[in-house]
Amino acid sequence: MAKFRYWGVSVLLSLGQADLAVATERPPYGDALAAYLGSSRAANDDTALAPLYLYRPDSFSRVTFIGHVAPDAVPSWRGVAIDGVWQPAVTPDDLARLLLPDTGWAAADPATRESIAVRWVEEIVMAGEVLRSGADLVPPAPEGAIAPAAARTLSDGSIEVSGWISHLSIAGEIADPFTVRLAPDGTVLG
Questions:
Q1: pLDDT reported for residue 50
Q2: Taking the CB of the first residue and of the last residue of the chain, which one, N or C, has fewer CB atoms within 10 A?
Q3: What per-residue confidence (pLDDT) applies to 30?
Q4: Closest alpha carbon to 120 in 147, 142, 101, 137
């Protein structure tokens, strides 16, 4: 499961030098948060009152998504920090060139590529919003109604990943199916 962190104004104000100096390990997301807060004012125009929302994928820990989330809304991503360097506008295709080589994508056999593709779509393309089961919804879906994301290799060498993503509605969360096709180089097709 992906790691999520909410940062409210009170939390940000409490992170002083003394707090960081006595920490026995680096605070989670510290490099990404510092990069975001230190970015130029034009790129970091934070007029939103919603708390900061940071998401670091389990399988791709070099990247941290940073944005805002309002009550009853999905995150609004401002950009990403890659290896602690703030990038205000990065697409999954930009990230594919930077991160997929670390996974062994180029030399992987078809089954391994499908496994990497599922993680890539779940954690990067859909930024951690993919459902793993009906229990992830509020209210929960019936048993077996939602299946985890799955991949299959097509005859042209591309990989198709299908699964479910949640959206908020008046009645609570609803699930919608999705299908994403990845080119042999890992970029998203049409």
A1: 64
A2: C
A3: 67
A4: 101
**What confidence category does residue 163 fall into, taking pLDDT thresholds of 50, 70 and 90?**
very high
pLDDT at 110: 93
Does residue 99 contact residue 83 with C-beta atoms inside 8 Å?
A: no
Please give the structure tokens belonging to residue 103.
Answer: 């996974």
Does the pTM of the predicted model rise above 0.70?
yes
d(CA 56, CA 67): 12
Q: What is the DSSP secondary-structure string of 68-124?
A: E--TTS--EEEEEEETTEEESS--HHHHHHHHGGGGTGGG--HHHHHHHHHHHIIII
The pair of structure tokens assigned to 76 is 């609004």
CA–CA gap between residue 160 and residue 175 (Å, rounded): 19
Largest CA distance in the chain: 58
Task: Using DSSP bridges, classify how beta strands 52-56 and 63-68 pair: parallel, antiparallel or unpaired.
Answer: antiparallel
- 3-class DSSP state of 163: strand
Supply the pLDDT for residue 42.
Answer: 43
Helix (H) or strand (E) holding 168: strand 159-169
Q: 135-155 b/e with 16+ CB inside 10 Å = b?
A: ebbeeebeeeebeebebeeee
Q: For residue 164, give the 3-state DSSP assignment.
A: strand
